[in-house]
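Entry:
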Amino acid sequence: MKDLVQQISADAVRISGPDNLDELVEQAGDASVVLLGEASHGTSEFYTMRAEITKRLIERKGFRIVAVEGDWPACYEVNRYIKGQGKTAHHAEQALHAFTRWPTWMWANREVADLTRWLHSFNESRTGMDKAGFYGLDVYSLWESLDEIMSYLERTGSPDLEQARRAFDCFEPYRRDEQTYGVSASFFREDNCEQEVVELLNRMRTERHKQEEQGDEQALSAEINALVAVNAEQYYKAMVKGGPESWNIRDQHMTETLDILLRQYGKGAKAIVWEHNTHIGDARATDMAAEGMVNIGQLAREAYGMDEVFAIGFGTYEGTVIAGKQWGSPMERVTVPAALKGSWEEAMHNAGAFDKWLMLRGRDDVYGTVIPHRAIGVVYDPRYERYGNYVPSVMSERYDAFIHVERSKALEPLAGIPVEVY
């Protein structure tokens, strides 16, 4: 550990302000896909630093896609707002109130509101595909995506509306309860809605092909909502069975959606992805691989090549975070204890008790051994942290670079969302 700490001390760049990230942006900006991680879904600095990197990649390196670990329908409302489309939202906070699914704080927060305002301002003087977009990659929004498809087909007078109604009617008996559908469809084959949503996706893809010359994002949105319906149907069936399949369905869906977006923006398109470290850090460099799990970090590298993907992990030594005690429970401001002895976070701390970033790409000689690396989810209890919150990782293989926040603070949910403290 002493040798590791000394090496980090020699290599790390101190972060005293956003300008200290410029060199990192230069290193990352030649890639087609930049993956920005986070060690939790509730830490302010992870969001603000990712925002500063994102702004610089957009302004200086031509990135136009911001794709996040969020539901497509809610993110598409933000996308419409920042592009000046529609009249549903008059300011950033109003657009972010589209995020109604727990955990709402992941995107309905002050930090994302600031970035949303910046994106809106950036786009005001631009047209067409030169505008930056904001999109959701996740798979959870089965019912919301079906609603959006129905609305789109009704609005356009499409003959595909009847197929959408058949898919919607198939799911209707489950009263928007994903677990009930998953249990029923997994054990009673006649309750399966797979055929209906696959046929709907095929029709939506044909629909978008007709609209392709106009670059119609409404048709794009309908296709991706149909893709969500297909993969969510598979996800909720796999979830009730346990094992790695549901995780893999989710990350494969994220990767497929990212690929559709890159193709939508055309030759030379460049994307920024915001997701948890467990998604963007190459799964092959962790114990996930032994469990048969893949993630977007691995899949993107395999699809586009190592040089076209740049992954930046994030972590903190101690501080506070927004999380819930259990799934669906009220959000709370939780104290994050000092990192576990012998962990990556402790080594970063011992190399200097300040924020810093570190280049890992090509440094297997010094950062290529297995070390515990902290991961905090939306459900978090620090009393049991040592038993499940540290992922054995080969850091030089998992990420291309790493940002360390010495003492972090919880993000700020938008007004009207109560936060408890423990």
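The two ends are 33 Å apart (CA to CA).
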